[in-house]
Amino acid sequence: MSCQGFIAGMTGMGAGLVIVPILLLLGIHTRVASATSGFMYFFISFSAIVTTIIEGYISWDMLLLYIGLAFIGGLLVSKLVYFLVNKYQVHSVIVFIVFGLAFLNLLSIIAYITIKVNKKNGWELLIKFNKYC
Predict the structure, then answer these.
(1) Is the pTM of this model over 0.85?
(2) Sign of CA dihedral 94, 98, 103, 107
(3) What is the pLDDT of residues 38-93, one digit of tens each?
(4) Distance between CA atoms of 54 and 4, rounded to whole angstroms?
C-alpha cells in the first residue's frame, strides 16, 4: 500500500464525513452537498488511479475493465437512487448513501491493514515509504 493510496482513502472518507455535514449545516440542499462530495471523490480516485498506473500495479486491460464496471454500476445506481428520491421525496437517502460509502471506505482500509499485518512483513511493510512519499 503506497502512502498516496492511504492518504487518498482517508481524504475520501473526509469528503463524505466532513464536507457533507458542513454543507448541510450551511443550508445547502442535500443533492448539491452529495454532488459536491461525489465531485471530490472523482478527483481523489483519479489521483489514486494515476499513482497505481505509474507504479505498475495494474494493467491497462484490467484498468479498462474496472472503468467499464464503474461506469455501468454508477449509471445503474444513480438511476435507481434518482427514481427512489423522486418517488418517495426522501432527499436524506442521498446523505445516507454518502455516509455509507465513507463507512465502507473506512472498513476497507481497516481490512487491508489487518490483512497486510498478518502477512510475512507485518507492520514494517505498512510504514515503509516508497519513492513517491
Answers:
(1) no
(2) positive
(3) 787 777 777 777 877 787 778 888 888 988 998 898 889 888 888 888 888 877 77
(4) 12
**Residues ≥6 apart with Cβ < 8 Å to 99:** 16, 17, 20
In angstroms, the Cα distances linking 49 to 37, 41, 45 are 18, 12, 6
Q: How is the chain split into domains, by residue range? A: 3-127
Sign, CA dihedral 15-54-1-101, equals positive
pLDDT at 132 over 70: no
The CA radius of gyration of the chain, in Å to the nearest whole number, is 17
Exposed/middle/buried for 113, CB within 10 Å: 0-12, 13-18, 19+? middle
Q: Classify residue 111 as exposed, middle or buried by CB count within 10 Å of its CB (0-12, 13-18, 19+).
A: exposed
Greater model confidence, 101 or 87: 87
